[in-house]
Here is the input.
Amino acid sequence: MIRLKRKQNGLSLIELMIALGLSMVLTLGVIQIFMSSKQTSRVQNSLARLQENARFALDLLAHDVRMAGQLGCNSNAAVVNNSGTLRAIGGGIFGYEYSGGLSVELLVGNGSNPGAGNIVANTDSLIVMHAAATGISASSTHNTITATSHGFTQGEPLIISDCDNADLFVAGAVTDDTITIGNGIFSKSHDLAKAQLSRLNYNAYYIRSNNGQHNLYRSYVNNSGSSIGITTEPLLEGIEDFQVLYGEDINGDGNLIRYVDAIDADMSKVVSIRIHLLLATLEDNLASTNQQYWYLNCDAEAPNTVALCDAADDRRLYRSFTTTVQLRNQGIGI
Here is the structure.
């Protein structure tokens, strides 16, 4: 008679402890791989969003700056400001070094200050003024414009120009084919064959703080009901700093340019703008240690130069971006 071997009915204590130990090692390894992959994914996604924000901000600012001073025909045309409201900025561009109390006014006399009380200290603000890229043919008497199906509304800032003269004004009473000037009279009667009517773009860019978050904002002049007004809108989040340097043509031939801040710049000689942005990820605890980064004016002994900054007070990722934009048009010279 053949006796069968008895099957094992359980594990010894030692075998059980070895199995549990091996399982714990494998589980910890899987968790470590998961956590590492998750952190890598967080870093890559945050950097991708940061770079996309930087690309959008630089493209937006560069496009607007290139248009500064554009009048629709000859940017050297004699310009008259008939608005009574718009703040004049020679050359179509103006900058502020914001230190906590400086007013960044888009309109004259009403105390308008984009982001009042919230503009981040020691950041810059930039105002850009130009005619829209597209316009329509128009003619005028000294107080009324005729333009078929113009599409403009009362209270809008507009500009009518030919290659000799330009008038900035705010639209008064409007019909389908006519626009009256809201204040004053035009400097001349404009000829339909030569004159172009365009919307006037008048934008301010600055950094504003909301609950500790630094964001890029834009305020712009538009129509508010039947009058002129200001609209403010957030553009991008995570823009920690915004600095602008102005390239002065020192000898007038474009061969010698120096870059200075708004306080030292002669805007009538500025031929280019250098924009510096510092962006940070929205998520914290991405870097293994507090980051150092290269940015403008971190060396007090070398103003208007890029230098290594002290380590940040958090573990977000920081990146600096720079672009230089040539001004294509001559000054508005209001």
